Fold 4-fold beta flower domain-containing protein.
Amino acid sequence: MKYLFNSSGNWIAFKIDSYLFNSNANWIGWFPWDDEHAVDKKGNYLGSIFDNDRFYKILNFPYRGYPGYPGYPGYPGYPGYPGYAGYSIRPQNTKDYTVEELKKLEN
């Protein structure tokens, strides 16, 4: 399991294998290309992992084609609370996510 944070150091999501979950442990996306870039359940670009534990949306991310559908991952279990990760400078041309924004993707 990899915990993911925004630039403020708040825990916003976690990754298990190729699946992405919000902090409520609800599936919100996946990593179809075996790299740091994630899509939502509909196949639209969602965000990318930076510096091993930060999750940001790259503005103007190039379209990479429809990645298909991975199948439902099942419930990952309670992820625990990783604590506060500390502030990090957000890279240029990226957007930060809040906990609330990723919780809206549950449905």
